[in-house]
Amino acid sequence: MRIKLDINGLKREVEVEPRTTLLDCLRDTLGLTGAHAGCEHGVCGACTVLFDGVAVRSCLMFAVQAQGSAITTIEGVTPGPGELSPVQDAFCETHGMQCGFCTPAMILTAHALLANNPNPTRAEIVEAISGNICRCTGYAQIVEAIALAAERMRGANRPKDAHP
Ligand code: FES
Ligand code: FES
User: Which of 6, 91, 135, 138 has its CA 20 to 30 A from that of 160?
Assistant: First the structure.
């Protein structure tokens, strides 16, 4: 089947089999390998992408289901070449990653959370990432990273003459 996808703001046309998962389409057909293949049956969250802004497991979706929706992968969150998003920056600063396998998914999950809740409590951050497994168990730093990113993003949106 020939399908049209909107990936990271670009229109892409690809040939897939009806049974091709969105994860395989992203990785094997489009070369977007930031979505990781972990368990491939919906448990680990490593394959997370944003589907119309909602964090979803791309191993549980068929590529054909993505027609007409906006898909964002980790390759699409940077503001420009060589730059990092505030969330990526915070992960670097707080050592929110070790081996990095879970990191793209954690960062996309954080983007989805902060888009809807700019001032999450620690419990809300923990809840948001509860579907993503970090095999290195670096959860404390990941939560710290998301809290730091939230604080900075709120600050960036504050009017210049506002009091802290
Ligand atoms: S690879 Fe999709 S949830 Fe594990
Ligand atoms: S940093 Fe290694 S799996 Fe999370």
Answer: 91
